[in-house]
Amino acid sequence: MIEKINQALAEAGAKAAAAADAAAVEQIRIDYLGRNGLFPALSKEMGSVPPEERKDTGRAFNTGRNKVQELIDTATARLASADGGSGEAIDLSLPGRRWKTGRKHPITMLADECVAIFRRMGFIVAEGPEIEDIFHNFDALNTPQDHPSRDPQDTFYFNDGRILRTQTSPVQIRVMESHEPPVRIVAPGRVFRRDTPDATHGMNFHQIEGLYIDKGVSMADLKSILQTFATEMYGPKVKIRLRPHFFPFTEPSVEYDFSCIMCGGKGCPVCKHSGWIEIAGAGMVDPAVLKNVGYDPEVWSGYAFGMGIERLAMLRYRIPDLRLLYENDVRFLEQF
Ligand code: 2NL
Predict the structure, then answer these.
(1) CB-based contacts of 8: which residues, under 8 Å, 6+ apart?
(2) Residue 88: what pLDDT?
(3) H-only helix segments in the chain
(4) Which residue's CA is minimally distant from atom 8 of ligand 1?
(5) Which is the closest atom of ligand 1 to the Cα of 207?
(6) Is 186 in the pocket of ligand 1 (CB under 6 A)?
(7) Considering 134, 144, 273, 293, which has the largest number of Cβ atoms within 10 A of its Cβ?
(8) Are 82 and 35 in contact (CB under 8 A)?
(9) Are strands 240-247 and 124-125 parallel, antiparallel or unpaired?
(10) Average of pLDDT values for 41-51?
(11) CA-to-CA distance for 171 and 33, rounded, in angstroms?
(12) 175 C-alpha to center of ligand 1: Å?
């Protein structure tokens, strides 16, 4: 008899541990404690137990029955906590939590828009590695050995001599190395410069560079795509101007400005009362760069330009401080 009780207890324990829902637990209660269950049946058998065994058998019976009840209670609590913590009933009338889907970052939005504008003008997108070698980032671009941009104070170097690219030009070098002209590409992406971050400078920023190599390309072609870009990006009233400059990889080189997007060129704090905003640099690709990638400079010529995406985004969305773009504060990001 005691053996039967212990066996029933072991079975009920295994079933209770395996029970996956409230119905399974209730079935255990019916099978063992219910009116036609095992324990009431055992109770009836008590009469046939010899008198000298009755005391121990009765004690085993009571302990067994209580244990089964305990098993049922534990299983019920376990299931309750699995579907909602404290086992309290779930209030189905409460409103659901809104799912935040997120959106594109303003830098991505601006980069996409630049790419779309240049694609409409026949450019295709090229991409390349952020970790570069000295050849593609500096040597091929005709950068002198003693140029300050090569200094470890300005460029991030790895121990093996590789670097984080300082511009996306190496992407364009790679395309020219592997493709015959004509070439008409834009290279958007993240670039890295060793700087102390402030309102207009960070340790990395995003750039889009363009390159067009063909027969008989001139500065007039460069000017026209820069004007078209300005019009598409900031509207029909925006003018451009080119100023002489120097880059090792272009000759002649220019910096170019857009007429101030905030004041329309009349003068305001954003353009420092000049009416113009400096956008970036450009020029005719230096013959030395063409030679470095195996193009004949007597046959081919072309222009290249580069601009900072953060700068374009700040003007487009009137963002006063570059650092806002990197803090990932949702209150800022959800405005775009
Ligand atoms: C700037 C100026 C510039 C280029 C980038 C370039 C690329 C090749 C050959 C020649 Cl492969 N030039 N890129 C040219 C002039 C200016 O960027 O201020 N960027 C933010």
Answers:
(1) 32, 38, 39, 42, 64, 68
(2) 62
(3) 2-18, 22-32, 38-45, 51-82, 106-120, 134-137, 169-178, 219-234, 287-292, 309-317, 330-333
(4) 169
(5) 20
(6) no
(7) 293
(8) no
(9) unpaired
(10) 87
(11) 77
(12) 15
Q: Is 35 helix (H, G, I), strand (E, B) or coil?
A: coil
What are the two backbone dihedrals, phi and then psi, of residue 157, each rounded to the nearest 5 degrees? -105, 140
Q: How many residues does the chain have?
A: 336
Please name the residue ranges forming H helices in 19-167.
Answer: 22-32, 38-45, 51-82, 106-120, 134-137
Q: Kindly report the average pLDDT of the chain as a whole number.
A: 91
CB of 130 closer than 8 Å to CB of 137:
no
Taking the alpha carbons at both ends of the chain, their separation in whole angstroms is 77
Counting residues of the chain whose pLDDT is more than 70, the rounded percentage is 96
User: Which tens digit of pLDDT belongs to each residue from 89-118?
Assistant: 778 888 888 888 888 999 999 999 999 999
- What is the separation of C-alpha 128 from the centre of its chain, rounded to a whole number of angstroms? 18
* Alpha carbons 329 and 16: distance in angstroms, whole number: 49
Cβ–ligand 1 distance for 309 under 6 Å, the answer no
Tell me the best of 209, 213, 226, 300 to mutate to test the pocket of ligand 1, counting ligand atoms within 8 Å of each CB and taking the most: 209
Max CA distance (Å), the chain: 120
Residues facing residue 244 across a β-bridge: 254
Q: What is the number of H-type helices and E-type strands within the chain?
A: 11, 9
Choose between 22 and 222: higher pLDDT: 222
pLDDT tens for 149-202 read 898 888 999 999 999 999 999 999 999 999 999 999 999 999 999 877 666 666
pTM for the predicted model, two decimal places: 0.71
Burial profile 269-302: b = 16 or more Cβ within 10 angstroms, e = fewer = eebeeebbbebbbbbbbbbebbebbebeeeebbb
Q: Would the CB of 281 count as within 6 Å of ligand 1?
A: yes
